[in-house]
Amino acid sequence: LLKMKEYIAPITDYEKSVLSLIGKDFLSGKRIHEILLLKLLAENESISEQDYIAALQKENAYITEDTIAGIETVFSLQFFVDVDKKKFGQKPVIIKTSSQYRFNDELELSLQDANFKQYFMDLLACAFIKNASYHNDEPFKLYEKYSRREVCRLLDWDKNEEGTINGGRPRNGDFPIFVNYHKNDDNDTETKYMDEFLANDAFRWCSTKNRYIKSKEMQVLINSVANGTNVYLFVKKDNGEGKDFYYLGRGTVNPTSAKEDKVFDKGAYHPVVTMEMVLEQPIQYDIYHYLVEE
Asked: What pTM was computed for the model?
C-alpha cells in the first residue's frame, strides 16, 4: 500500500507488535489453534476454556492438555526468546483468569479502533485461508515445510529452542530430527555427517558431534519404540533452501542398528552415533528424488 501511495491509518507501536506476532508465527496457517482463539476473542469479550475446546472440536482439531498449555505459553510470550518478546510487546497478548481467556487491556482498547481491527481481522482471514490446506487433527502434514521454530511451537515445547536444537532433541515424548541432506564439499564450516536415504522408506541418521550410544539423548532415540517416543523426520536438500525442512513422517528406529562412528571436522575426528529407521510410509516419488539427487 505504501508503494501504491495508498493512505494507511496510523497504529501504535504496540499494535504493530501484535500484528508482527500474527504475521510471523500464525499467518502460515499451519495450526488452527492460535488463530481460532484470536478470532473468538476478537468477536467476544472473553471465552471459557471449555468453549474454546468445543470450538476446536468443531474444527476436528487435535486437543491435549499439552496443546492447551502450549498455546497459553505462546500467548503469554514465555515461549519466545527475549529478542522476540521485545518485538511482540513484552506482555501477554491473552490472559487466562479462572478458566476464562481475554485479551490484555491495551489490545482490547486497540480493537475498538476500526482501522486496527480491520488489519487484525484481515491477517486472521489470510491465516484461515492458508489453514484450509492443512490437517487440523495432527501437528504436521506430510511434505509440507516447517522451520525448527515452528516445530518447537507445534510440539508445544515451553521454549523456542530453534537456536540450539541443531540435529534433533527429545522433549515431552517427542524427538524431532532435522537433516541438511547435501553438505557443501567446498564449505569447510559444514560438517559432513553421514545421513543417508537407504530407500524411499528407510533412512540412516547421524547424530551431531560428541555423542555416544550411552549418551542420554541417544538412548531415548535408540529405544524410542520401547519408551513410546514419537520420532519425526524433517529433511531439506541443502542449506540453500533456507530454514525450512520437508516433513517426511514418523520414523521407527531399529535399536540394533545403532553404532558409534566418527566424523572429520576442522582437523580432528569427533564421535557420533548412527542408526537406521523405517518411515511410516514410502516418500512421495518427486519429493524423494528432489532431495536425493545432487
From this structure: 0.92
